[in-house]
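Re: beginner question about structure tokens

> Can someone show what the tokenized structure looks like for a real chain? I only ever see the sequence side.

Sure, here's an example I had lying around. Input first:
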Amino acid sequence: MELPEAETPDTEGTLPPSRHRDELRDILSLALNGGQLMLENGASTARVEETVVAMAVGLGADSVDVFATPTGIIASAHAEGEHRTKLVRILDTTLLLGRVSDVLDLSRKVVKHKLSRDELRRGLAEIATKPRIYGHWTVTLAVVMGCCTFAALIGAGCYELGVCAIASAIAQQLRVLLIRLRINRLLNTGLVAAAASGIALLGTMQQGTLPNASAVISSVLFLAPGVVMMSAVLDLFGGDMVAGVSRAASALMTLVAIAVGMWAVLLLGGITALPSAAVAPPLLPSLGLAFLETIAFAIVFDAPRRSLLPGGLIGIAMYAVHLGLLIYNAPMEVAMFGAGLVVGILGELFARIFRLPSTIFTIPGFIAVVPGVLAFRTVLAFVMNDYSLGLTSLVQAFLYTGALAAGLGTVELMMRTWKQKHAFML
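And the corresponding structure tokens:
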């Protein structure tokens, strides 16, 4: 990403109009570069818009109009009768929450006038080239731990856990290789899903039967677009229809790619029976597994180290509420909504305590209740040509995901309204 050249300060009295225009252009470019970094690394469009405005005003603009979508940002800055407008495109995205946090730290310093334009320019350049917080093998181990803890939560035994570990580790290595080869994202997802589910299926079939599908489901968990789906619902809750529909379409295409990969493997494997029900572990072990799974996916998403422990506590609280509501015979939709509320509230609380974006806590926090079993049942039903069951499972999966996102969205809307009312931004 190219950053604008540094400007030499003018010390000879009043600046000519052309110089005002050049400075305003530089201010807008720097603010947009910050927003671009955030959007490329997983920030929400609302947070990006807030940050671009904060940076530009902090650097000297009188006012800023900005509109962010998942694929681009357009902004106009105004100062002393001059205005400049610029558009930046978002060509590639990933999920590195540490970079989002770093940009927000810079924006807070700009707002407090603790950074000059040149210092901000250098800071953004460092963030753009900053390596991941966690190394390759640490991320691989986190993927394995995240997938295996999810498998245990849905009733996997020791053998299935071993199969899931092998399948997810190999699939992660394949994913990294395909990314380096610059393979199309959807093709990458489909190939990795096929590899993961194929290895898991072969492993579980070595026992002669398929007692449950926990290993197959969990081996592709790290590919699921849960974050994008949550972001889509939150954008729609916030009234940003363009961003919401765009993210929803992206999530749907990723789900289709995963489904096609698994579908091909199931067809080739001749699987014609739905997985039997598995017995979930008791309450206390389940809470421990939720804690480990939340931390694992926080590492996968490159969250700062100081967020790992509080993030794991959010996972425990979320899963406890989810299980508690189910124990008292609440509908699954209510249990998912309650889980979303807990994740949203605690995420906002810890965001203020640790001075980090709330998404660093909320994104890993809901993974433990992703409706993976229903998603797998949907794919398998379509393989069996049982379209009625497939559509029923698909609708249930979307309802459960929507209820979870609605809980998160309720907190997000309340906080956004409060921020606007008090003119306050983290």
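Each token stands for a local structural state, so reading them left to right follows the chain. Residues 57 and 63 are 6 Å apart (CA to CA).
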